[in-house]
Each structure stands twice: as structure tokens, then as C-alpha cells.
Amino acid sequence: MAQATVTRRVEKLNNASSARVVEPDQDLPGKLGDGQLLPDEILLPTVGIDDGILSPEQTVTLSRQALASITTAGLQFEAILIAGFGLQIAGAPDYTDPRVTYLLHEMGEETRHSRLFARMLAQLEPPAPNPIDNWLVDNVANTVIHQIVHNPALLYTMVIAGEEIPDLLQKRAADHPDTDPFVRAVNRYHRQEEARHLAFARMMLPEVWERASVIDKSLVRFLAPTFIREMYENLIHAGVFGAVGLPAVTAWRAARNHPGRVQVRLDATRPVLNALIDAGVLERGKVPTAWRGLCAVDPDGHPVTR
Ligand SMILES: [Fe+2]
Ligand SMILES: [Fe+2]
Description:
mainly alpha; binds fe (ii) ion
């Protein structure tokens, strides 16, 4: 896409963001209910337990802890995005570029989402700690975050993944009548604004890729799939399973390979791969092994049956 066309489309996104500012404290004043917040159909394939070993009370706890874990991950992800975009603005050659204006719109929208997420989190029971957290995991996570924030092509790749994956989960939850009404309202509002963010990230990726360093490009080709996989698997971390009396790490590992949960991963990550192919980042016929593993596709990027 020519630069002038991108500029025009970004201007349209700026107009859309200006025209409809949602302030969640005023526009979404609701509260979470007291019972199960996510229905079995959404929760079980996500969690990987469908053999009836949990009592109804445990399922309620599981749904609430799962929502707390997902919401915490959402807050962390939006904070990383804001950090990365902030650095992009700091280094931008022209502050009058509509792309900079859009980054500011997006950061503004994310801060409103994050305030809503924090309000929702405050209504839940204290989240169970993740038993996998230790100084080594923390150090690795900090190194990964540093790379994401400082490498623009990796940043935009993670933004696309971090918006596509929750989008699918939120769509399924929002469409389900048994999802808590407030969770449904939050999901609908969030998806509506994230649709613009996704459009922007997809539009920007070819420009960003053209200017990306060799290291940045290598991170996207070879390491991004691992980062995306762990982001997905940790939306519901091991502590959530421990909170209902299951062996936390064993249950979490089993959930990673549960067919329902694997299918959600493939459905959520294949659009990310396709976005990278469309942007000219990856090429059909030469899709790197790491991406093929994440999305279960052949070297052309087409789904393989397992
Ligand atoms: Fe958001
Ligand atoms: Fe977003």
C-alpha cells in the first residue's frame, strides 16, 4: 500500500476515534454478578477439564479465577503496548504525522480499557498467585518485554497477536447467553475499539518491516511464535487450577495440550500469521518452523491436519 494511502486511512481511523469516545466509568457503570462468570462451553475447552471432576462450586471459583487471570494479563499487555507506542512517539521524526495522532488515540483508548479492567479485577476475589513465578521467570519475562518494546516490527507483531487472541475469546464469551452480563458488555465495548487497533497495526506493519533491523526481523521470524504461545497459555495461568484444588502445574500443562484449547489457539493465531503474510513479513512456501508449529500450518501457511 502506498504511503499516501496509509496516511489517508490512518486519518479515517483518527476521525473514528475522535467521534466516539467511550468513558467506561460513565458508559459502563455495571458490576459483576456473584456466580459463574464464564459459561462451561467457554471455560472448559479453554481450561481443559471436561471430565466432570469439578463440583458446581469449584466451577464457579474456576470461572472467577480465570477471569481474574485473563484481566490481569490484559492489563499487563496494554501497559507493554503503551510503553512501546510511547517510545515510538518519542523517536518520531514528525509529530504532525497522522500516525502519531493515532498512536495517541490508541494509548488513550487503552488507558480507558485498563481502568475498566482494574475496576472489574477489584470486584473479584484476590487472584491466586502463579506458582511458576520466580526470579528466573521474572528475568526472562523482563528481557522479552524489553525486546518487544524496543523492536518495532516485533512490537506490531505482538500487538496483532495480543489483539487477535483476546478478540476471539471475547467474541465467543460476548455471543454466549450464559456469560455474565457485565462481562459481555465489557467484551463488546473492548472488541469494538480493538477492531480499529487491529486495522491500524495491520496497516502499519509493512512500513515498520521495511525499516526494521536484522535483529528485529529475526525476532519476528524465529522467536515471536514462542512469545505468542506463552502469552496465550498464560491467559489462564497454573495458579487458577491450584485455586480449585487441582495440582496447579500438572493441570496447566495438561490444559496446554487439550484438543479444545489447542483448537482455540489455532483459530486465534492463524489470522496473525495471515496478517504477517499479507504484510510481506513472511512468505508463502517459506513459513518458518516456529510459526508452523504455533499455527499447525505447512510451509505455505495452509492448515495441516494433525
Ligand atoms: Fe484494549
Ligand atoms: Fe488495543
